[in-house]
Amino acid sequence: MAKHKSPSRGEPQRLRSALLGGCFLLSMILLVVYTSYVVSFSNLTFWRSNQAAPPVPKEEHKITASDPAETRPQKEKLPRNPFCDFSDRRNDYCEMEGDIRIHGNSSSILFVTSSNTNGTNIQESWQLKPHPRKGDARAMARVTEMSVKTLSPHGAPKCAIRSTVPAIVFSTGGYMGNFFHDFTDILIPIFTTSQQFNGEVQFLISEILPIWNDKYQKLLKPLTNYEIIDFNQDHTVRCYPRVIVGLKFHKEMSIEPSRSPYGLSMVDFGRHVRKSFALERDTTIKLGPDQDKKPRILIIARKWTRIFANVDEIVRKAEEMGFEAVVAEAKYDLAEFARIVNSCDVMLGVHGAGLTNLVFLPTNAVVIQVIPLGGLEGISWIDFGLATISMKMHYLQYMISLEESTLTEQFSRGDPVLSDQKEAYRKHGWDRMIELYFFKQGVKLDTQRFSSTLLHALELLRQQ
């Protein structure tokens, strides 16, 4: 009679390992599929929205926060030299000290060493794209890949220009030209990265365009005392004693003081912005019994997407309630628009890049973000709610009713586009729904319903 062979103790263990491996592989496949949809709306999912968004009443919600704790960390010694970190989900990063030679046109950063220097091995190399949209294939396709290599002195190119100050190498690629991405991906991270050098640092920027440099020169100039180098077009071998490749990203439109040199926060970034543009007001008007000036409310007018379909009505309601209303759309002359924003106490806008102008507002200002249909509560909070609070401003969030969306003119009331956005995403796909909710939807505010939000903003200004 044949005997059945009992499984060995190792077989269940191997089975469990195989199952775990299979689950991990499936998770990675799902992650790749998910990130293939990540464009400039990287936080837009119903599931992440539900987790990220604070509890919001039907119409509006005000959120405040205490000042972030200030820490003053000492500069840490590099664990390796050069040190490259690829563990962060948003950015890759390298830092090195010593004899570093950069040849931008060939996308090469060369660390000259010997076999007995800090245990570094000859001919090590790393490849990275120094832009904080890691995982976003569409954005990163517009970013030059660079190589960081170690090599011996006899194989290194000769220095044409030798600098005594450090360098920071990064890319403005990705979604360059989108006002929100210019700030969250580049201008805020380069502020935190460069502050430790007090201007004694040079920027080598990949994918930079003259129009971008001109637009933001007032913000960049205080951060470096030296010429900005067009990395891709530079044929010169430049040598530096210290080099940082890449910018550390914290979170959308925000700074985590515990992760930044000297405990920097968004309050510090706000001061940097106001000083760079020579803006007059550091704080808002304070309403009181002896105050005869009217608070100014800026209504961000969009021309093409997520527009206010009844701007005149909104202006009349705001003026009835005691505001001086200003209607404006951001222009290329950033300095001029920054002065307009800074002169206002309240800013009102539909979710979109135009709300990035909140960086020009004075402290204690009120930002009112109007949330259109499309499951956008989470991304709206992440992109602009957190930033508003971290800059010591007040945040009000107004979620429109179905009747306030212009999509009711295009779809019947029973259509999932209006009644069940989660189902609409599933049925029509992400590209189609993003086109609808982001580009083909306008907002016609119910001014009577919205008046309670305006009243709330006035109350906040009285509390200053």
TrEMBL record:
It comes from Musa acuminata subsp. malaccensis. The keyword Glycosyltransferase applies. One of its GO terms (molecular function) is glycosyltransferase activity. Residues 57-79 have a biased composition (Basic and acidic residues). This is (wild Malaysian banana) hypothetical protein. It holds the Pfam family Glyco_transf_61. It is a single-pass type II membrane protein. GO terms for cellular component: Golgi membrane. Residues 52-82 are annotated as: Disordered. Keywords: Glycoprotein, Glycosyltransferase, Membrane, Transferase, Transmembrane, Transmembrane helix. Residues 286-368 form the Glycosyltransferase 61 catalytic domain. It comes from the Eukaryota. The keyword Cell division does not apply. Pathway: Glycan metabolism. The chain crosses the membrane at residues 20-39. Its main location: Golgi. It is found in: Golgi apparatus membrane. InterPro entries: Glyco_transf_61_cat, Glycosyltransferase_61.
